[in-house]
Amino acid sequence: MHIHDLIGIGFGPSNIALAIALEEHGQRHGKVDACFIERQGGFAWHPDMLLDHAHMQISFLKDLVTPRNPSSRYSFLNYLHEKSRLQDFINLKTFFPSRHEFNDYLAWTASHFEHQCAFGESVFEVLPEMQGKDVSLLRVRSRDASGQVHERLTRSLVIGVGGAPNIPPSFAGLQDDTRVFHSSRYLSELGRQQAPRRLAVIGAGQSAAEIFLDLAQRDGTEVDLITRCWAFKPSDDSPFVNEIFNPEYTDYVFNNATGQRAALLEEYMNTNYAAPDLELIQQIFEVFYRQKVTGSQRHRFRRRHEVEAVVADDAGVHLRVANLDTGDSDSTCYDGVVLATGYQRQVHRDLLAPLQPWLGECSVNRHYQVQAAEGFRPAVFLQGCCEPTHGLSDTLLSVMAVRTAEICQALQHALPRASARASAAHAEPVAAMAQG
């Protein structure tokens, strides 16, 4: 079986950025045989949140390459140039392209590396390949849409699968009910509904705000926005606070003691979590203000409320909602419920479970490499699930380009040793057979 230098699980922005970095790094230091495995049938970046009028919350300069290599041909500016839109974009006088356009940029970059990616396969297991008492290689097992299992060997592994939808416990038993769905499936699931009239949106972040406004603009819909908070708090994007997304701040967070890291995360949590853009908050406020002017009650802002219980029947989805200030509760029936409740980033632990004897709790070093026990030769890297050690920027585009450079540097040191040892290990049985 062919042995890859690197297998990447997932082919979203993180691993696309890594594919670019490996190509550019390889021009100077030698090519790395990299293969990526993506469960989707083709590239797609949050396709169910590509709402009209939705814009990026981050500057286009923080694309997949520019902070690492401003001269890269894979920059957003070069994408605009190749699409013959550079001058028009300049005339927009904005740093924040539409989400549709940035998705097109990502698809454009991904198209250059499709030959390296196996689409439509879902990785379900990573197993150790033993040589004596040592783990010399990793066997990555995936399953395609037809159920066929594929196996690949690799000297190193990088996991960049993004987050899994966070489903509140009260909704856990309704994951097969098409009337209840996470924001990550918003457009697709809403399109399957039979003319929903009354909907609930649960959450207080950017996704909840965007979805509420999208639904509020649809004729005939009534929307309840249900949040535990009293008021939306805008994302703090002031210049000094934005420095926490600079690469050097990652050093600062990582080099702090564990307890201090947690305090730093908590201090700046409102830069990334439950913090919509101020413009969105103003638009939502205007929706409710117009209702006061007209005297209508089409939409409700159920602030300081929490879902206590959920019951689904033929009539709809019944939410019992408690007022956190008074303790009173009431029940409302909805045609659909959208859970804008964020993501969990634990998928890597499930994938790496067979390697737990060597990788333990998957703690990482500064270069995102999982620290392994003696006798474990493959290098394993994590992208997008190191927030507790590397800071709030870890799940965002902000440090993605620079992070890939750090992973490339670590690979450069790890691969020669891993490659030489693995080749020698697999040559021994062949030599023994020849002698026999």
Automatic annotation (TrEMBL):
Pathway info: Siderophore biosynthesis
SUPFAM superfamilies attached to this UniProt entry: FAD/NAD(P)-binding domain (SSF51905)
Keyword annotations: FAD, Flavoprotein, Monooxygenase, NADP, Oxidoreductase
The keyword Membrane belongs to this UniProt entry's keyword annotation: no
Entries under InterPro entries matching the protein: FAD/NAD-bd_sf, Lys/Orn_oxygenase
GO MF term list: monooxygenase activity
Top-rank taxon: Bacteria
GO biological process, any: intracellular iron ion homeostasis
Cofactor(s) the record lists: FAD
Classification via Pfam families: Lys_Orn_oxgnase (PF13434)
Family in the record: Belongs to the lysine N(6)-hydroxylase/L-ornithine N(5)-oxygenase family.
The protein's name: L-lysine 6-monooxygenase
Organism for this UniProt entry: Isoalcanivorax pacificus W11-5
